[in-house]
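Changelog note: in this version the structure field was regenerated for every chain. One regenerated record is shown below for reference.
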Amino acid sequence: MLLLQSQNTEISVFDSSLSVIETKKPTSFKTLDSLFSNVSRDSLKMRQLANKSKAILYPEGESYALNALGVIYRDTSQYEKAINLHQKAKALADEVNNNLLQVISLNNIGVAYRRMDLVKPALDFHTKALDIARSVNNPSEEIKYNIAVSQNSIGNIYLVLEQYELAMRQFQKSLVIEKEAGNRLGLAINYQNIGFAYEAQGEFDNALRNYKRSLDYNNQIDSEIGRVICYNSIGKVYIKQELFQEAQVIIEKALQKALVIGDQFYVASSYINLGWAEKGLKKYTNAERNLNKGLKVAEEYSLNLSIVEAKKQLSDLYEKTNRSQLALEFYKGAIELEKTISNERNLRYVNDVIIQYENEAKNKQIQALADENELVRSRLERNKKIFWYSMLALFVIGAVLVAIYRTRQLQQEKQILTLEQDMLRSQMNPHFIFNSLNSIKLYIINNEKENAVYYLNKFSKLIRKILVASTEKEISLADEIETMKLYMNIENIRFSNQIHFEVDVEEGFNTSSVKVPSMILQPFLENALWHGLSSKKEDDKTISLSVYKTSDDFVTLAIEDNGIGREQSEKINQNKLLKRKSVGISLTKARLANFSKGYDKDYKIHIEDLYDNDKPKGTRVVIDIPIRSTLKSA
């Protein structure tokens, strides 16, 4: 009953996590791991997560799930399936340019190849993972952890290549990162590998000390697979120290746990090590049985190093039991397979030979070219004058074309610069600055310090944004909206904060990804304030800015006020002795026309008078700005 209740709770939590990814689609690996790490060893749930993510077009979730499934296959020695899943996960990570998922996928592929004793591809994938991880600025804890994984795996490959000093250097680097992060699993792995390096060099006491340290960390995190690895390693050292009884006891414990886990790599190792210990105890029948079991598993899963070890131990066993023919047969089989691995181990030396050969071939080609050059020298001398005359003509034509192009470019840049300067003068209106500072001064005189400081901060931010915008031809729509909020906030002081300004952005629309000319909305908002609302007697003064998309080609910006309308505003302006002459709109149209040259579509501006039963109730300005990224062809 309790088990069923626990399973139902686990399913409920998993369903809740699936709902989270469907609504929020988190891109952070840390968030994904916090949602699914407790079920990452459950192949059914990971398959469900992968299918769900694929259905909702969520590459990050699908990549996470495929990597988890790949690890499950790897730990059951289904390496080809594991590699295929990790490669799909890598492709999805590439699609969204997620560095962390790329690194995790590459490291997982490397580990699978290393388990198959395929040294070169393993080293290639771990090196790629390390390169990507190190290219990340301000790396997260997850990136640092994967750097440690890459270094640890590369160290393991150096162990296979018998480059123990290089291996130890990688493990020590990895150990530093794991200690800083307090990652006990990483510490356990590194101490295990350092122990192996010591063992390979015959330093058995140092090897045992590191193996036991690794075992201690594995016990702390309750890792069964970690215990299997440590028990086997300690048992092998005992065998080499001829402590066969102690070796048998601890390796039998490793075998029991390996069989439960089902990782055939460690099942094979445990059977072989147990047979080796029993051979030392002269329990030849048991030794032969266990060595053959280990050999069978190793051959079934193409574990080449384990095959070599099993055949060597069987050869020695048959020699001890006077079966010379079998001993020779198994010894030859071990040596033949070991040679193929050795060829892989010495790949870098083969590469040196190839490079040397290529250099010699290139030297011969150079010599042949030199001989041929002597034959054609006379023809080259004859054609030299023609060549230089042609080059001179091309140079003159090119210089003329460049001069024409540069002149046109300078004229266009001058036009743009003139527009930007005119716009800056319009935006830095002396009356606006003077009146704004007077309003802030009034707060100071009235001892309203908080209001004075608040609006002074707003004013300084606005001036800074205007000055920054004057140096940029275009900015993001998000920055433009923020600047307009500051502008309206300052102008509102002079209206005793009666103006209600609201911004409505269409849900799901990313304003940060859209570029617009800087300060493009200010002239329209200024018109709405001074021509639409300044003469309105009622208190309900509103300006709204709406941002939405009506097509893939345009973003639409709509500015609407509930003022007196254009007709009434024009009458009032004609009766004023001091008329406000606005040049901002014409400048804005010129800037929009220049901006639209780089797009398929041209800008559109539509001004609409709003009425309520034939009574003016405001003005609405609709601006369509092109956003399609495909540039016009020349």
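Spot check on this record: The CA atoms of residues 80 and 610 lie 69 Å apart. The first helix runs from residue 2 to 24.
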